[in-house]
Amino acid sequence: MTIYIPTPLRTYAGGKDAIEIGAATISEALNSLTNEYPELRKHLFTNEGKVRAFVNLYLNDEDVRYLPEKENSQVSGKDTLSIIPSIAGGCETVREA
Amino acid sequence: MYEAIRAHGEETYPHECCGALLGRHGEDGWQVVDAIKAGNTRTDSAHNRYNIAPIELVRIQRSAREKGLEIAGFYHSHPDHPAQWSPTDFAEAHWLGCSYVITSVAKGKATVTNSFLLAGKTEEDKRFEQETIHVENAPGEPTDQALQEITSTKDQR
User: Rounded distance, CA B120 to CA A17, Å?
Assistant: First the structure.
């Protein structure tokens, strides 16, 4: 499968925006990815080994959180996994300039 | 494009607008060549919060890759608030090395636009650094139809 790396994490993935990984499940693919690029681990996972809350994983166009098998979902060579940190904010409370 | 970003803030006033900036990284920072409007999913509190649906980000990232560009950063507006990052903006900022552009929209009119680089190497040491925005017209293009480019460089002040 192909894993797409977002801009901020490319520096920890050899500068690549896409990485081909041979794996049977999403979890296996993420393990292979972080074994190959260990610096990615702390950006993707908490100390307890869970995916960080602000990191979204999309298998093709599906949010992995809502897949029946979640990270244990089976994958094939044609699948893509997008890593997408969340984007949010707002002027709810404002720091003085 | 710079004016389009500001106009987006006026269109959505009194709600916050948001979108993504596509470009390339050079020696002087990001050169932004395209801005993609996004929907604000925070319909419960759109006047002071914004959120871009992750699936929209997936599609924007895909589109950028097809164009040979990267996601350089994001923009949003602050209706009737200064163009300064808020604690909420900081807490929710996770794209290290990317630019966060904020436009203040006062009574429906875009006023100040600022850009902040999310500097640092991890979530634990991240910080916003104000950047200078350079607005350029593409060479050889008529001014009124020019593709404008934003080059964000770290503010040395």
Answer: 20
Q: In percent, how much of chain A has pLDDT > 70?
A: 95
Interface residue A61 vs chain B (CB under 8 A): yes
Reported ipTM: the value is 0.90
In a domain, A78, yes or no: yes
Domains of chain A: total:
1
Q: Quick check: A95 pLDDT over 60?
A: no
By residue range, what is the domain housing residue A58?
2-85
Q: A17 and B45 in contact by Cβ < 8 A?
A: no
Q: Would you say residue A90 lies in a domain?
A: no
Of the candidates A2, A1, A33, A9, the residue with the CA atom closest to the CA atom of residue A85:
A9
Q: Give the CATH number, domain containing residue A70.
A: 3.10.20.30
The model's pTM is 0.90
A43 vs B122: CB contact, 8 Å cut-off?
yes
From residue A81, give the alpha-carbon distance in Å to each of A64, A65, B64, B117.
9, 13, 16, 27
* Domain range enclosing B18: 2-154
pLDDT at B149: 54
Residues of B in contact with A58 (CB under 8 A): 54-55, 58
Site from B12, B88, B126, B155 to mutate, A interface, most A CB atoms within 10 angstroms: B88
Picking from B1, B68, B12, the residue whose alpha carbon sits closest to that of residue B38 is B12
